[in-house]
Amino acid sequence: MSMSFQQLPPPTGLPYPGPAPKLPSTQLHDPLAVAVGNASLLGLGYFLIRRWIFGALGLLGTIILIALLVTQRQTGYEFGLIAWGLLQVVHGWFLAYRQPLRKADLTKRLIALGVTAGVLGGFAFERYDTQRIDNQAVAARDAGNCDGVRAAQAKYNVGHRLGNAPRTVRVEGDVSACDRLDTAESKLRIATSTADVNALDEQFGVLSDVLNQPGQTQTVGKVVDGFVSELPTSDPCRTIELAGWLRARKPSGTVLDRATTVVPKIEPAALLGCADASAAKALWPDALRTYQLLLTRYPQAEQAARAKAGVQKANYEILQAQIRQELERVRELVRSGEYCSSPAKFSPAPRIRAGVNRAMFEGSSEYPAKLPSQWKGTTADNTALIVCVGSKGTGPAVRTCRYTPIVGGGSATNVTFHNITVGVKVYELRTGSLIRTGTIQITGTVCPATISYMTFKGVGAPDPDQDVRPTTATIQDAFRALVVR
Q1: Are residues 365 and 470 in the same domain?
Q2: 376 phi/psi in degrees, rounded to 5
Q3: From CA 150, how far away is CA 159, in angstroms rounded?
Q4: pLDDT at 35
Q5: Orientation angle between helical segments 146-153 and 106-142, nearest 10 degrees
Q6: Domain identity same for 239 and 306
């Protein structure tokens, strides 16, 4: 008899005699989902496979790099952020791939793709928008519109710094340049109104510095044009100082040279106006110099005719002022008796000519009092000479006579009579030049019938050397050669 048997399942709760089979794992890994998730820079791939530490480290590294990028805004941090993301992508892929159970997970892939696309899309948009704003700033800068540059720069936010941090730095450089230009423009306006050429030199140095920065030609040119528009100033003399500084400035071959081109347009009128202002204040030497400068630099200018008339007027007034000064000086010297020690000229005085040349006599008046009135000048206008008369001296002996006392008796005495000498200096009043110096001799009568002398108690004798007795005629003869030619 044959029998068949059927294997029954082991009783519940009893140990299974063979090896226990492996149960399916509840955590499947999708390397692609992890890699895509980590590409978001948020550590998402790690979180999807519950690698919390790796996820936290990935997110922390991203936060640190973003903070450095936003604050420092250097290209190196951008590359660092990209490298950090690539490192997480590669690490996440291999970490998931090495797991024993792998299975494509559409849900995780969609989550990773969505988040990563959102993050990278945000970065891409912010980068695009940063470039768009930068283009606006460049266009405004190229148009010389600093307000437009500032308006563009004001549109930047943290997102733009994340998208393209170095580009936001470039625009800030343009804004900084505009700030310097605004300050320079303000100071140039003040320097123009006060003709402060030192300040002009300093601020043009600032403009030159800004001009060396890329793309600043139009912004600097606008400031230069504004400076030129302030010329000429309301004060022509200040305009001359400004024009002089511009004339002396060395050309640079840049937009700064626009300022120099205005000089021929403003200087002629400024020179004439300044000269006229000096003339109105009776500052004739200043007026003359300015009129002559106008004629020298711009002989064909429409102001040249008025400048020529101004030169004539200034020369006349300067001459008259000089004459007045000379007259006052001569009058004071003659009045104080100091002309002979400090001679001075009087240009309108008569020239020395043939005939009588009127003279003023200074010094001893004993003999000039005997001279004809037609020989004597009364004012500087009718006086040709100044004759300085010294004290009299004893000249050569003329004759010796013997005298005896009339009363009282006594011995006879010989008395010698001498011509009178007088030291003289003659100045030409017109030039103040000494034209003659020396002595003149005055003759006279000798050996009069009687002579007088002093005695003491009847004792005494006449002076044995005595002067001749001059007459009006002999005095005039002695002085004639000084005044009559």
Answers
A1: yes
A2: -105, 130
A3: 18
A4: 75
A5: 160
A6: yes
